[in-house]
């Protein structure tokens, strides 16, 4: 087996402005800043965009901000958790545009916006980035921001047209990584000055505290993992862009030579049945655990020895950040925003998209070199703790919102 190069990939971060560098500012008025967030739906707090928005809502200074949340699609999670979010929650049903009821809901949302009168509207997800932005501007909201958090691989020609139209009404667009900003500029044809970057955040202190409390032996027993087995894990929604077939194909290659490896998939989605069938065809079901979606993945992270991400077009993967904070050496695709996080040989290892053989080889290399694993884990934690702390993210948004209102951004 060849020794893997430690040469690092250049980060996009050096080539784009970072909103977090905007100087702190204060409004001249003592009144609270009324901010209204839009999101299409929230099915779980553990998903990437939903989790980041909920952390932002929970972290904003309530002495300075009054916060509301508009949901454009009712879900069971919202029904169970709406009173725990620390802000007012307003539900509408705007997702099926072939139905007359949807347009009645749009009118109801219009009336709500007129009465609530936010000073800032910030939208997340495709429908909100169009409907929320356009309606807000029509009702007189001056400061309207939309978000970009992935490569827009879902965006067809019609969606792109409506998104570009909504961008005319948006004052700013906030991306969560350099590559996401670049593809937004290229595809949506917006002015570069309109798009800024604020990186995802994670509560490092809380994460470390909860991780320390995990009893790894209990988790391994729950998963029926033998004492002498190593664990390779992947946290992802089961969608096409996640390329989870590569994970299973690499598992099959590894299990041809090693039997004491267990593979764990944390997540769920429309491709679960297909992936379970693939594991059956590869004759590896005995070594693959489909754990489903967990409200708290941290105990399971504690039981993982190697973390994997096979995605084609991540913006800035929360799963990878969590691997890095948890001290898990990871192997991820050299695609999307992943190289912003993983510098090959310094904070993790990279492999080329859909190259199951390379992924298998690098997983085995890490399993055989515990000293390298420890070095990568230390480098990853040091990097994340400096760049992706939750407090840094919240402070960046605070300064950004204030800068919009004062005209200094």
TrEMBL record:
It holds the Pfam family Glycos_transf_1. GO terms for molecular function: glycosyltransferase activity. SUPFAM superfamilies: UDP-Glycosyltransferase/glycogen phosphorylase. Residues 48-205 form the Glycosyltransferase subfamily 4-like N-terminal domain. Residues 217-381 form the Glycosyl transferase family domain. PANTHER family: GLYCOSYLTRANSFERASE (PTHR12526:SF630). This is Glycosyltransferase. It comes from Syntrophorhabdus aromaticivorans.
């Amino acid at each position: 087996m060849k020794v893997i190069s430690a040469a690092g990939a250049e980060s996009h971060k050096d080539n784009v402005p970072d909103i977090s560098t905007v100087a702190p500012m204060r409004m001249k008025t003592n009144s609270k800043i009324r901010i209204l967030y839009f999101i299409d739906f929230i099915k779980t707090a553990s998903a990437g965009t939903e989790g980041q928005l909920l952390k932002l809502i929970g972290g904003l200074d309530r002495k300075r901000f009054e916060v509301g949340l508009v949901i454009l699609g009712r879900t069971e999670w919202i029904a169970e958790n709406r009173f725990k979010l620390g802000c007012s929650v307003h539900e509408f049903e705007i997702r099926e545009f072939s139905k007359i009821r949807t347009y009645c809901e749009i009118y109801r949302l219009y009336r709500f916006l007129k009465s609530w009168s936010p000073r800032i509207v910030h939208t997340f997800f495709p429908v909100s980035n169009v409907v929320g932005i356009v309606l807000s501007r029509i009702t007189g909201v001056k400061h309207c921001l939309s978000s970009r958090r992935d490569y827009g691989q879902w965006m067809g020609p019609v969606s792109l047209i409506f998104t570009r139209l909504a961008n005319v009404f948006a004052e700013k667009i906030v991306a969560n990584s350099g590559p996401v900003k670049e593809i937004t500029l290229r595809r949506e044809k917006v002015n570069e000055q309109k798009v800024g970057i604020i990186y995802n955040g994670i509560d490092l202190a809380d994460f470390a505290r909860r991780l320390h409390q995990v009893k790894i032996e209990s988790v391994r027993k729950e998963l029926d993992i033998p004492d002498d087995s190593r664990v390779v894990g992947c946290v992802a929604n089961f969608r096409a862009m996640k390329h989870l077939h590569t994970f299973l194909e690499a598992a099959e290659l590894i299990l041809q030579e090693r039997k004491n490896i267990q593979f764990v998939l944390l997540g769920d989605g429309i491709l679960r049945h297909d992936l379970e069938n693939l594991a059956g065809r590869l004759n590896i079901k005995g070594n693959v655990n489909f754990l489903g979606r967990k409200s708290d993945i941290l105990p399971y992270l504690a039981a993982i020895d190697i973390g994997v991400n096979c995605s084609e077009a991540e913006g800035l993967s929360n799963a990878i950040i969590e691997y890095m904070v948890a001290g898990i050496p990871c192997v991820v695709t050299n695609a999307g925003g992943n190289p912003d996080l993983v510098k090959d040989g310094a904070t993790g290892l990279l492999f080329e998209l859909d190259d199951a053989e390379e992924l298998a080889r690098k997983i085995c290399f890490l399993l055989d070199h515990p000293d390298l694993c420890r070095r990568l884990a230390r480098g990853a934690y040091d990097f994340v703790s400096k760049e992706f702390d939750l407090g840094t993210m919240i402070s960046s948004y605070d300064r950004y919102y204030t800068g919009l209102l004062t005209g200094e951004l």
